[in-house]
Amino acid sequence: MREGSAKICGLACLLSPALVVVGLSADARSRRAEASARAPSVAAVAARLPTSDLALSGGARWLRAPSLEEPSAAFADGPGAPDPDPAGGSMAPPVPLWNARGAR
Amino acid sequence: MNASLLSFSLAAVLRRKAKSFALGGGLAFAVALVSAVLFLTGSLRSEAERAHAAHPDVVVQRLVGGRPTTIDEGARAKVESLPSVRRVVPRVWGYVFLPSLQGNVTIVGSPPGDAPLSVANGTLAEGRDLAPGAHEMIAGEGLARFLGMRPGDELGLPASDPRAKPMKLVGTFTSSLDLWTADVIVCDDADARALLGIPDGQAVDLAVHLSNPNEARVVAGAVLDQLPGARVIERDLLARVYHLAYGRRAGLVLGASLPALLALLVLAWDRASGVGPDERREIAVLKAVGWSTADVLWAKLFESLLVGAAATALGVLGAYAWVFWFGAPGLRPALVGWSVLYPTSRLTPAVDAGELLGIVLVVLGPFALLSVVPAWRAAIADPSESMRG
After folding, report:
1. Using CB atoms within 10 A as the burial measure, which of B327, B344, B349, B380 is most buried?
2. Chain B residues with CB inside 8 Å of A101's CB?
3. Contact A54/B343, CB-based, under 8 Å?
4. How many domains does chain B have?
C-alpha cells in the first residue's frame, strides 16, 4: 500500500466511530420524526385500549397487561411457582406500584 | 498527529492480519451484542411510553381474595363525586382463548363517545369504525391475517354466554400500531360483555380522568377511602413499571450472554495487552535505529486505536442495523416475548448521539490504554537484550 493511501485508510479507521455516531444519530432522528408524525394515531388507538402495555406476550393472560393485573401474586395460577411461559421470567412485576400502594 | 507513524501502524496491523482480525472480530461481536440489547430495550421502553399519555390518570379495580374481579358500576357514582374527577368510564375488556391460534386475544369493549378510528386519521389500514349495536369488530392486522379475515367477513368467537353473536370485521388497525393492537379485537360494549360473560351493571375496571392529573395521588387515596378493598393504579407509576420490566428483560438477556462476552473480552485483553517475541524484537529494532520511546508508544497506540476504532464502529453499526434495519432477528423474541401474535412493526430508535458516543468511548478508551502499557515496558527495555530474545 502506498504511504498516501495508507494515511487515508488509517485516518478513515480512526474516524470511523465518529462517522458511525453521526450517521446513526441522523438516521435515528429521522425515524423518531416519522414516529412523531404517527403520534395522533397512537393516541387515538391507545384511548380505546385498556392499557398502554405493548402486545408483547399475548400467549398468557397474566403477561399481556402486567401493569393492570396480578396485584398480589406474580402468577395467579401458582403463586411462587416457576413461570410456565418463558417470557414471564423476564417480565418484572410492578413492584413500585405495590410499594406505593402499601405506603398509603 | 504524526501521519507517517499512522501509516507505519496500519502497515504493522496488516502484517499481523490474523491477530488483528481475531481481536477486532471478537471486540466487534461483543460491542454489537451489548449495543443491540441496549438499543432494543431503549426502543421498547420509549414505545411503551408513547401510548402512556392516553392512559387514564387513575384506574380503579376491585379485588376479591387478592385477585382482580369485576367492579359494580355503582362504584362509578362514588368516584365521580370526588373533587377533581372529570370523567369516569366503566371499561369492559378481557381475554378469549382461540384454539385455532393457541393463544389469547384481547377483547376490548368500545363505549360510545370515543375518538373515531378511520383510514384518514392513520389508525386503520382498511375499513371503517364500529357502528353501535351492529355486532361489528375491528381487529389487529396480524390477527386478521392469521384468521384469514378481510373486512366484511364474520367471526364467531368461543363464548358460553348465549348473548354472544358472530361479529363482522369492519376494519383492521394499521400495521404501524401492531405493538399495541396485534392481539386486539375492539367491538361494541354489549358484544364485549356477551363474549366475556360480564353481566350488565358490572365492569372490569373504572377509568378515571382527572381535571388536574397532578392530583392523582390524592384522588387515589380518596378512592380507597370510598371503596375499601379497591386497587387503585396511577398512570405515573406505570412509567416506572415499564422502566423496570424492560430493564429486567435486558438484564436477563445480557446475563445469559455474559459467559460469551467475558470469554471474548478476556481474549481481547490477552491479545491487546501481550507483546509477543516478534513485536518485542520489532520494538527493539525501532529503538536501535533511533526511534524514541514516545514514537514507539505512539505507533503502538495507533495500532490499538486502528483495530479498536474499526471494531467498535463496526459493532455499533452492526447492532443498529440488526435492531432497526433488519428487525432484530434472533434477539427480538428474547426481549419481546414468545407471543403467538407477534408484533412485527419496525421499532423507533430511542438512542441519541450522546449514548452512541458513550458506548464508543467506554469500549475504545480502556482497549487503547490496555495495549500501551506492555508496549511501554518493551520500549524501555535494552534493545540489544530484546533482540537476543
Report:
1. B349
2. 231-232
3. yes
4. 2
